[in-house]
Task: structure prediction
Amino acid sequence: MAGALLHVPVAPAHAAPGGSGPYPADYETTLRLRNHTIYRPNTIPADVRLPIVAWGNGACRADGTWFENILKEFASHGFLVIANGRPGGSGQTDSDMLVDSIDWAIAENNRVGSKYRGKIDTTKVAVMGQSCGGIEAYEVSSTDRRVTTTGIFNSGLMSALDKPMLSRLRAPVGYFIGGPSDIAYENAMDDWRRLPSGLPAFMGNLDVGHFATYDQPNGGEFGRVGSAWIRWQLKGDAASKAQFVGPDCGLCNTDWDVLQKNLS
Result:
């Protein structure tokens, strides 16, 4: 799926820390994972272990700073976020790159001399992505048992031949879609109807279209809600859980159109 952002400038080699969370976040690169961009708290907290978030970009574009606003927002809440592609990069990505991100993070948690040694919660792993990156996330979540939650942003499977992949999903999945004007809307809603019985799932539609709010500070509303999803799923945050669960959830009766399955 050719999902992308419009009018987003090429990122500088280094940008100021950002995000609204308690740990202002920045990004870096490493030769140990040369085709990715790593977002983390600018100062890695001593008393917090960072869950892993592997991110696939819209259009499967290998630019790790294309979604800088929302990824810094995620990281600022105490997550290690790894995006496919180098800063300002070009070319195409694939789902194997998300697996590479997870492998690297687990290795760094154990590597002597790594600044991440003992700092990463390797039992909590999200795969997430926008548009084409969401399909990458599906592919990994359907096969990699290390994944503990999936985030699908403005995305859905286009081919009927791919739909059986949904039956292999095991981790709770959150959909964050741009409403009927989003080109991914029909595909996402069809995926929703095909999810395995008993799978915990949330569907949120905000009528902002396929490019959503990613160009806004901290990723706008999609950054706020996406951060809440991973704070619940990967950190067990009760206030964040309340945004998604029950008939009186925090997102219910707002501009978000909400559907829920097996959430408790």
Summary: The chain has one domain: 25-261.
